[in-house]
From TrEMBL:
Keywords: Membrane, Methyltransferase, S-adenosyl-L-methionine, Transferase, Transmembrane, Transmembrane helix. It comes from the Eukaryota. This is Methyltransferase domain-containing protein. It comes from Marmota monax (Woodchuck). One of its GO terms (cellular component) is mitochondrion. The lineage of its organism: Eukaryota, Metazoa, Chordata, Craniata, Vertebrata. InterPro entries: FAM173A/B, SAM-dependent_MTases_sf. GO terms for molecular function: protein-lysine N-methyltransferase activity.
Length: 235
């Protein structure tokens, strides 16, 4: 646009500059806000965890939780969720009768949120959320383990599970399968898919069961109960 009046042109130029400056400020502001969220809410607890083992929080979908429970329901013994996030899997496990149900989570904000959810559900004294590094807790007394972690850490997790879990324990892995174990059951589709693994009865040769793997149908909408496993595979 051409201006006869130099003062008008100057004003427009200033306004344009201001626009660019504002854009820059907005971008810097959003960057700072994102950094603050990361540093204050997501990063706490991870400072001492090597970068390659850091797994960000993503909550399991409702369908995923349903599938985890359908693969654990009715099993005796302690249940743990390794990296329990906001506690949804532990709370659901407790509600369907798994006792004790324990969540290990590094992020203190998420531990607090999980406890709040449990309190609101009237289960404050019954479920347990601990601020612990999942790589450091002992799994020797765990019969039922739930994980929803990044694929990059799963090879290392396999070693830990194999070294510590008692014979007859079951591991369920949400969204990503354990890389080398053979599942005894798979349920769900896409992002909601969950794999189940049983640790062999002979713990000294502890390998997850290498039996055939049925792909179980996804339960219908609203169904809390998934098809139960054949007794030979029910752990
Ligand atoms: C993908 S989220 C899954 C959350 C929850 N299990 C669910 O299914 O909704 C993974 C969680 O693991 C936690 N986490 C990652 N590394 C951990 C560690 N070393 N010890 C304990 N928790 C960890 C993260 O903070 C995050 O909440």
């Amino acid at each position: 646009m051409e201006h006869d009046d130099p003062a008008e042109a100057l004003t427009e130029l200033r306004e344009r500059r201001l626009g660019a400056l504002e854009l820059l400020q907005a971008a810097a502001g959003s960057g700072l806000a994102a950094y603050a969220v990361w540093a204050l809410l997501l990063q706490p607890g991870f400072r001492r965890v090597p970068l390659r083992l850091q797994v960000p929080y993503v909550g399991a979908s409702a369908r995923q939780v349903e599938h985890v429970l359908s693969l654990l329901r009715g099993r005796p013994g302690k249940m743990v969720d390794l990296g329990s996030g906001d506690g949804r899997i532990v709370l659901a496990a407790h509600r369907c009768g798994l006792r004790p149900a324990v969540g290990y989570e590094l992020n203190p904000w998420l531990v607090g949120l999980a406890r709040l959810h449990a309190w609101r559900a009237g289960c404050a004294g019954s479920v347990c959320y601990l601020r612990e590094d999942l790589w450091k807790v002992s799994l020797r007394d765990c019969r039922n383990v739930s994980v929803f972690l990044a694929p990059s850490v799963l090879p290392l997790l396999e070693d830990k599970l194999l070294a510590e879990l008692p014979a007859g324990a079951r591991v369920v892995s949400g969204r990503f399968p354990l890389p080398t174990w053979q599942p005894v059951a798979v349920i769900g589709e896409g992002l909601d898919r969950v794999w189940a693994y049983d640790v062999d009865m002979d713990v000294h040769h502890a390998r997850p069961a290498a039996t055939s793997c049925p792909i179980l149908p996804t339960p219908g909408p609203g169904s809390a109960l998934a098809p139960s496993l054949p007794s030979s595979q029910a752990g």
